Amino acid sequence: MTRCCGALQSEEHKACLWFLEAIRLTKVELSSIASFISQGCIVTACNVCDYLLWHLNVETRTFLYNSDKQTMAPTRLRVETRISHGIAQDMVSSLIVGSQAAVLVDVPLTIPQAKELVPWIRSNASVPLVAIFATHFHPDHYLAAHIILESFPEADLYATEKTVALINDIIEGKTAFWKSALGGENIANSPRIPKAFPSTFFSLPGDDIVHLLGPVNGDSPEQTMFWIPSIKTLIAGDVVYGHGMHMWLADLDDPSMTEAWLDSLRLIDSLGAERIIPGHALSDQEGFNGSKDTDHTRAYVRFFQKEIESKPRDTFTPEEITAKFDEAFPELAEIEEGSTSKLLLQINAQHFGKGGQRQKHDVDLVALQKSYNASWDFSKN
Asked: Quick one: which of 367, 139, 381 has its CA closest to 257?
């Protein structure tokens, strides 16, 4: 019997689908198909077979793995990270590397930083890059994706269906804005639009499953996190910021968004993740291990909720808001002028301060929020 090619309509794959019946068989009956399995159809080269194997109960899975000398257990994924500093706004890209393929999560805003990402990907993954994901619709997480796609033609760019719709709504205006702000040489003329990814999980050939958790709230609605339970690693996107940074708050147009962000952090707590990779950070030297960044994000959002958002609009001037954050987070007050972190504080202060410059949104964020607010949390219903 030849190995399953993974095509749903192939003759070999019909046998893979038959394997579903094995879930209901006894150990004795399973032993009769052990040789069939070892012949090569139910192997990790087939994504669907890999999925079926992974969803067997532990006892059955262990029995099957031990029924032949060939080890069939999924291999251990690893995640590498790289921060694009400067005009790319300290955005964190994450590379999920498997035994036969790799996936990139989030691409920088700017062309030069995306070009720097190419050799980094090649040096950290000797396997093909098969997909790129954008965690949400903010352009600093996908706008220069064409650079990566040109360098890795086997890959496609993906996002959730709702995120793709939002990107289509804003892409023209945001591209023009960033060209004006950063120069035409730094921004794509015709940015690539992601394809809608229809599933809530994916698996790389021979490897553990990666779960897409969303939509959840972070610094905007409609965010997706990537959870790899086998290595207790969460790629959190802009649901979490590095502990050395101020955060983008100017999309919080309604208190429900702020509370939903805190709900997302509670969801993260429940996962028991040992490594939580933020969407923006100043350094990854600590490996993003532990809850330091999540705790910082929670404290920052709660401070905004209590000290700024809960007060009537225009209670404070931009200068007063800046002073409040500097006092509450003195370690951030020492960050140099002109940095992304400092710029974020200035924008927030202007947006929420009396007489300040309000941010104009290309999306009705309040309506977006109300369309699915805490739909995953039955305690909110």
From this structure: 367
The reported pTM is 0.80
Instruction: Tell which residue, 180, 211, 179, 194, has the closest CA to residue 107.
Output: 194
CA distance 85 to 191: 21
Instruction: Measure the CA–CA gap between 251 and 220, rounded to whole angstroms.
Output: 6
Instruction: Give the C-alpha separation, 71 to 62, whole Å.
Output: 10
Q: Residue 290's domain is classified under what CATH number?
A: 3.60.15
Q: Where are the alpha helices (DSSP H) in the chain?
A: 11-18, 27-32, 34-38, 47-54, 58-66, 111-124, 145-151, 161-182, 255-271, 292-304, 318-328, 330-333, 340-352, 365-372
Helices (H) and strands (E) in the chain, counts: 14, 11
Domains identified in the chain, total number: 3
369: which 2 tokens? 């929020």
- For 69, residues 6+ apart whose C-beta sits below 8 A from its C-beta are none
The string of pLDDT tens digits covering residues 275-312 is 999 999 999 888 898 899 999 999 999 999 999 999 99
| Residue 80 located in a structural domain | yes
Cα–Cα distance for residue pair 141/174, rounded to 1 Å: 12
Q: Give domain status of residue 37, yes or no.
A: yes
What are the pLDDT digits (tens) for 155-189?
999 999 999 999 999 999 999 999 999 999 999 99
